[in-house]
Structure formats: structure tokens, C-alpha cells
Transcriptional regulator, LysR family
Amino acid sequence: MAGVERDEMEVFLTLSEELHFGRTAKRLFLSQGRVSQLLRGLEHRIGGRLFDRSSRRVTLTPLGTRFLSEAGPAFRLLDAAFQEARASTRSLDGVLRIGFTGGADLTLLDAIPRFQERYPGCDLEMYELKLSDPFGPLHRGEVDLAAVCEPVVDTGLESAGALATAPLVVGVSVAHPFASRSRIAAEELADCRMIDIKEPAPSRWRERSSPTRTPGGTPIPRGPVACTVQEVLSQIATNRGVMLFCDNFPAYNGHRDITFVPVDGLPDSRSTLIWRRGEDNARVRAFTELAVAAAQRDGVETSSRASE
């Protein structure tokens, strides 16, 4: 159907049923002049007359009859597929799968009950993402949305902008020298062994939780490698290394053998919602809008943007 406009085909098919310009215009909510204009455009593209019209009657020409029999069914199938696809993106009934790394932040937790109350026909499913692969589940279609920390270093993803900010704390074993401190300076991280996050997590993203240097440029010794939050906590609890977390992380992931100490001199962590570019369907948009509204109530400035 290259070169044929949807409006032209609708006029042609309706006129072939009504055989009357006035009734055709009424059915399509168009003027008779617009109906005639669209029909002339279609005939020009085809290169022949589709209807014989006089002051008394309108009839299909042999070319019009053949075009109707060949193009009509194809157009109706295409139109039905289009309408079904559009309805599926607008409908909120179904399942919305949300992934998160570590503990879900407060903005996400606040949006979930609001979403379920507003859209009872949509079931929410939550999945914990590996630290070593925070973006892969989106690309593989395993989740529709993911709540992650910035930066989002993947050009195939889009972001809702910062939905929450939080100071950073360092998780250390109760046997670590820092465990008795009320807070430490960022430069003191050079005295620790930092747990590494395994690839394929991008290096820039890993730097937020597992920096390789202090803000002053001093290298931070490397410790063991981990893929999941539970692996990280096990390494910390056994005093094999340390890692940075948002300061609300201990509220949902406390551990009797781990102490979380505030770190001065580091920028706040920023969390966001991300989705695969071009796949922000109605459920994704509705949840993101609620999360953005929750963030704005908390005073966080947000702006939807592509990944860095």
C-alpha cells in the first residue's frame, strides 16, 4: 500500500458501500468537498477513475471494482492489526514487571500501592536484578521497568530522570576499624578493600557503588568480586571488603555483622526508573508518572531524558 493514504482508503471503501457522496461524508464526519478531494488524490495516485459519478448516481468503474476486491480486504486486515496494536499500548490491564537492584527505594515503594489502587486490572511483578547485570533484563524483555541508580550508561534505554537522591554510606564489617566511627571522609576509602562488581555491568555504573579512586585521585585497593547484593553483604560481613550504599539501604537490608557509616565528600546517589527505548507503553507511562509525582512531592526535580 505504498503511496496510499489511510484517509483516502477509508473514503474509497465507504463510498463503495454507500455509492453516495453525502452519506459517505456523514459517516466519516467530513465535508463532501473533502471526500471528493481525497478520492481525486487516490485516483491520481492509481492513474485511473475508480467511480463514475453523475448528478443522479455513483457507480464503481471496472478498475474500481478490481481495486476494491484486491485492496479492500488487505486494508481491513492492516487496519484491524493497527487498531489492536494501538489498543494494547493504551490498555492498562495485564502485567507490569519491575526490576530493582538491592532494596527498592522509598519513591518506588510509595508508587506501588498508589498504582495498584488506581489500576486494579494491572498486576505488578517485582524482580531483583543482579548488580552485575542491571540493564540486561530490560534488553532481554524480562522486565518492563527497572529502578536503578544513575548513571544510566546505555543508549538503548530511556530514563525518567532522578526520582530520589540519598547520601552515601559505606558498609563495613563490625570487625572493621571504621565500624566504631560516626562517619568517615571519602579519602579514607583508600584504606579499605573495595568489593568489585562483576561485568557486564558498565564500569561507569559500577563506580557509584565500587569506586576505583577517591575524589582526590588516590587508588582504592580492590577486594573480592560479587554479582548480587547478597554476595556483597556476605563479603562485607566476613570482613573481606567494603562497598558504598544509599543511606536508606540499611533500613531494608540490615545485617547484624555489618555497620553502615556515613561518608563525607561524595555526591549523593540518584535513583531513577528506566525502560527500553521505544517501549514505553501505557503501563510503563502510568507507573512512571506516579513515581515522578511522588518524587516531586518529596521535592526532587525530575525531567525525562534519554540515557547518557
Notes: Confidence is low (pLDDT under 50) at residues 301-308. Residues 62-90 form the longest helix (29 residues). The chain is about 40% helix and 25% strand. Residues 168-267 form a domain with the D-Maltodextrin-Binding Protein; domain 2 fold (CATH 3.40.190.10).
